[in-house]
TrEMBL record:
Record organism: Gilliamella apicola
Any matching Pfam family: DNA_III_psi
Source superkingdom: Bacteria
Gene Ontology molecular functions: 3'-5' exonuclease activity; DNA-directed DNA polymerase activity
Name of protein: DNA polymerase III subunit psi
Keywords, ordered alphabetically: DNA replication, DNA-directed DNA polymerase, Nucleotidyltransferase, Transferase
Length: 135
């Protein structure tokens, strides 16, 4: 035990150890496996039936979807080559790219036929991105 450790213990100060200091240096990035075909950005992991129905309709499994909260999305838009679906999240203008889908919350989406139709058209446009092996 170092002298500093001893003083902290005497003062009843809990000492914390930072396990991954690279986070503060900007060296940590979200690893995207080659099997990832869709990034979903939402405040909480979607659990609604419509979400699972959409994945089933576009023939993706949960293992092929990377879920991120808005604070976890630290990748610049120009570096993302995967369709990114923002669910009830306002995106910054610079983040938008040609592979971005924006929808309202899933409960509202489930009740609005026009929103569902628009989403389905976008998903159909990106079919080759979901299944590149079918080209």
């Amino acid at each position: 035990m170092t002298q500093i450790d001893w003083y902290l213990k005497q003062c009843d100060i809990t000492q914390y150890v930072l396990r991954n200091s690279a986070v503060f240096q900007g060296e940590l990035a979200t690893h995207m496996d080659d099997k990832i075909r869709l990034i979903v950005v939402a405040k909480q992991q979607p659990t609604q039936k419509i979400y699972y129905d959409i994945l089933k309709a576009i023939e993706l499994t949960e293992e092929q979807v990377l879920f991120l909260t808005p604070s976890q999305l630290i990748i610049p838009a120009n570096e993302v080559k995967i369709v990114t679906w923002f669910i009830d999240v306002n995106t910054d203008e610079p983040w938008q790219n040609n592979l971005t889908i924006n929808t309202s919350d899933l409960d509202s989406l489930a009740k609005d036929p026009q929103q569902k139709r628009k989403l389905w058209q976008q998903l159909c446009n990106y079919e080759n991105h979901f299944h590149p092996e079918r080209k």
